[in-house]
């Protein structure tokens, strides 16, 4: 079940930053409706000395810069899980007809 959740999360990221949303601007996630009044979205260069949203209450968000090794590991893991999903190795899902590998937008995702 954990693997399926990871696959779904990675596909959501790929969809969000991929070709399927090319009609949005690159900063559409900075819409003020995403945040409580007076707060900045983490994706919009937030102030890291403040807590944001209910999920961050009482926590100190920190910026993590991905190294090239981190990025390569995440890309490899994503494509491995994509392969398992596409080939039908994830129970209760049919094999995919066409699933391309994530490469084009990965560097942009890692920068955010």
Describe the structure.
This protein is mainly alpha-helical. It folds into two domains: 22-61, no CATH class; 64-111, no CATH class. The chain has three helices and no strands. Helix 1 (2-17) crosses helix 2 (68-86). The two termini are 27 Å apart.
Layout of secondary structure:
Blueprint: H1 2-17, H2 68-86, H3 106-111
Helix pairs in contact: 1-2
Structural class call reads mainly alpha
Give the low-confidence spans.
19-27
Compute the separation of the termini in Å: 27 Å
The overall pLDDT average reads: 64
Shape: extended
How many structural domains in the coordinates?
A: 2
Please bin the fraction of helical residues. Answer: 25-40%
Q: What is the succession of H and E elements?
A: HHH
Comma- or semicolon-separated keywords:
single chain; 112 residues; mainly alpha
Q: Nutshell version of this structure?
A:
With 112 residues, this protein is an all-alpha fold.
């Amino acid at each position: 079940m954990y693997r399926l959740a990871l696959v779904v999360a990675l596909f959501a990221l790929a969809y969000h930053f991929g070709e399927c949303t090319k009609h949005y601007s690159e900063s559409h996630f900075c819409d003020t409706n995403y945040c409580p009044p007076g707060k900045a979205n983490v994706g919009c260069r937030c102030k890291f000395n403040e807590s944001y949203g209910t999920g961050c209450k009482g926590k100190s968000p920190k910026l993590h810069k991905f190294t090239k090794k981190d990025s390569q590991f995440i890309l490899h893991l994503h494509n491995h899980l994509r392969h398992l999903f596409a080939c039908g190795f994830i129970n209760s899902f049919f094999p995919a007809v066409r699933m391309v590998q994530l490469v084009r937008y990965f560097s942009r995702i890692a920068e955010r």
